[in-house]
Specification:
The chain is of the alpha/beta class and 324 residues long. Helices cover 40% and strands 11% of the residues.
Length: 324
């Protein structure tokens, strides 16, 4: 059903995201990385599965937990790592940090920490595709917290009205910062929110990269064919803290998630799950998997070394990229 090529590419993307995220732990704890860093570990299947069906001219807009979206869309690994250190060689020239990534060369048009802040921007990009009769797609990644913001509903209404080629992707990790889903919503029914607008909507296992990939293929085809937007709720779970490696370290105890719940979701880790699938189906053997990991790990280590040695932006250029 799947070619070895696409399965290996999906795995390589997930490896890159997971190992890159884990590589930030020490710099965060050592305070070498001074910007807030929202780690994406545990949610890799969503960005990998969707990124695999997009082309370079499709565009992606993201939120505060954006590293996976950036890398899956082809964002430069060096640019990400250097940006976390605040260096001039970063993708935003050291001025944006973790939550303001950008890489227009590959269609990653930006992330922002304002909840739901980039949804309407993705809608605008989709409108431009529609006006110019282009077959490209705009993707908006947002969390479950964004589903309480009015701009999402305004954007869904307009996207449906104009049949815009837009993919709404809600990564529901069950907590809006530290609030569980049923303390912010009367019902756990995010995927149904798009239905009143006539938008095809569905809920899927966001920890199953192949399910995400299959769903994204159909959704993007729908968008390209002029049928309008699609809404996908991906059920997933972050394995690290809301911001930083762990919410229960350095004297801060803000993670209210039950230990049993965390352990249950760890058993559904999309990274480990896909590894087992590849081995069981004779796609990759253990040595090939370890080779991919080792190669990626070494690349990331080298980029951390070079990024640490790169220059910071100079004070005289503070306003160089500010537009009024």
């Amino acid at each position: 059903m799947y070619s070895k090529k696409i399965l290996k590419e999906l795995f390589e993307t997930m490896v890159k995201i997971r190992l890159c995220e884990e590589s930030f732990i020490d710099p965060i704890l050592n305070k070498e990385a001074r910007c807030p860093v929202h780690l994406y570990a545990g949610q890799e299947a969503v960005s990998a599965g969707i990124g695999a069906v997009l082309n370079e001219k499709d565009v992606v807009f993201s939120n505060h937990r954006s590293h996976g979206h950036y890398l899956a869309k082809g964002g430069d690994l060096k640019g990400l790592i250097a940006e976390i250190y605040g260096k001039e060689t970063g993708c935003a020239r050291g001025r944006g940090g973790s939550m303001h990534l950008v890489y227009p060369e590959k269609g990653f048009l930006g992330s922002a920490p304002i909840v739901s802040g980039t949804i309407s921007l993705a809608m605008g990009a989709a409108l431009s595709f529609r006006i110019r009769n282009m077959k490209n797609v705009a993707v908006s990644f947002f969390g479950d917290g964004a589903t309480g913001e009015g701009v999402l509903f305004e954007s869904m209404n307009f996207a449906a009205l104009k049949k815009l080629p837009m993919l709404f992707v809600c990564e529901n990790n069950l907590y809006a910062t530290h609030l569980p889903i049923l303390e912010t919503h009367a019902k756990d029914n995010i995927w149904e929110m798009a239905k009143p607008f006539g938008i095809p909507s569905l809920r899927i296992d966001g920890n199953d990269v192949l399910k995400v990939f299959e769903t994204a293929q159909k959704a993007v085809k729908n968008c390209r064919s002029g049928k309008g937007p699609v809404f996908i709720e991906c059920r997933t779970y972050r394995l690290r803290g809301h911001v930083g490696p762990d919410d229960n370290i350095q004297g801060s105890h803000t993670d209210i998630r039950p230990k049993k719940e965390i352990e249950t979701w760890k058993k559904r880790d999309p990274f480990a799950k896909f590894e087992k699938y590849l081995i069981k189906n004779n796609i990759l053997d253990r040595s090939e998997i370890e080779d991919v990991k080792k190669k990626t790990e070494n690349e990331i280590k080298d980029l951390h070394v070079s990024s640490r040695n790169d220059p910071y932006p100079i004070k005289e250029n503070l306003k160089k990229y500010v537009f009024k």
